[in-house]
Amino acid sequence: KNQVEQSPQSLIILEGKNCTLQCNYTVSPFSNLRWYKQDTGRGPVSLTIMTFSENTKSNGRYTATLDADTKQSSLHITASQLSDSASYICVVSAQGSGNTGKLIFGQGTTLQVKP
Amino acid sequence: KAGVTQTPRYLIKTRGQQVTLSCSPISGHRSVSWYQQTPGQGLQFLFEYFSETQRNKGNFPGRFSGRQFSNSRSEMNVSTLELGDSALYLCASSRDRGRHEQYFGPGTRLTVT
Fold first, then answer.
1. Total Cβ atoms within 10 A of residue B7
2. Whether B105 contacts B5, CB under 8 Å
3. Is the peptide bond prior to A44 cis by the omega test (within 30 degrees of 0)?
4. Residue A5: in which H helix or E strand, if any?
5. Beta partners for residue B31, in sequence order
6. What is the C-alpha to C-alpha distance for residues B32 and B24, in angstroms, rounded to an integer?
7. Shortest Cα distance, chain A CAs vs residue B56, angstroms
8. Do B84 and B77 contact (CB within 8 A), yes or no?
9. Which range is most confident: A35-39, A99-103, B1-5?
10. Does B48 touch chain A (CB under 8 A)?
11. CA torsion A27→A30→A32→A38, rounded to 10°?
12. What is the Cα B40 distance to its own chain's centre?
């Protein structure tokens, strides 16, 4: 069964600290993996998209890694800011299904950054 | 460049009624997808439209339907509303199908009483 599991479910860190969010998937055949940031009351905003051949992708203070062999991805946030407080969603797309035909969503990790 | 817009932003309906939500994609984007987001289930894919044709559909009952117009604007309709349909409905657009970036709208918050 195609599944995407994220951990931890929630996380509280102090401003300026780093953190890493995890995403494990069992989607097959794999096409790409996306990380989204969703602020409360807003739609998700894409942070990164990675295909099978990409191991690392950065977007400012956000760095995503992908290990296609172990089917794991992580999102590392460096020098956290209060504005990083949000829900982070991992989404995996199955191959051959267009843009959204077989998108499997994780439940998200809620990050709270405290001053 | 204007982002994805959704109307209305908030809606309250009673059980048994029907509702229509609207989504205007970013100019030049031809693919529109709809999602339902609830605290318990998270984000779930409803359907995708491209060139006025439904290309993919998620696991939702037939009460959920949609369409896309020639200008790429899209509507989704939910008939015979149930309490469990209360959710945030998100629309996302992308330039084309495939590995293109998706841009989400702010969503429509539907409450069914």
1. 12
2. yes
3. no
4. strand A4-7
5. B50, B94
6. 9
7. 5
8. no
9. A35-39
10. yes
11. 0
12. 19
The per-residue pLDDT for range A13-63, each reduced to its tens digit, is 999 999 999 999 998 888 889 999 999 888 999 999 998 889 999 999 999
pLDDT of res. B96: 82
> Token digits for B52?
């006025």
Contact B91, A100 (CB under 8 A): no
Q: Is B9 left (phi over 0), alpha (psi -120 to 50) or beta?
A: alpha
A107 touches chain B (CB under 8 A): yes
CB contact under 8 A, B99 and A101: no
Strands B64-68 and B53-57: unpaired
Q: Which two tokens stand for residue A2?
A: 């195609």
Nearest Cα to B107, choosing from A39, A93, A82?
A39
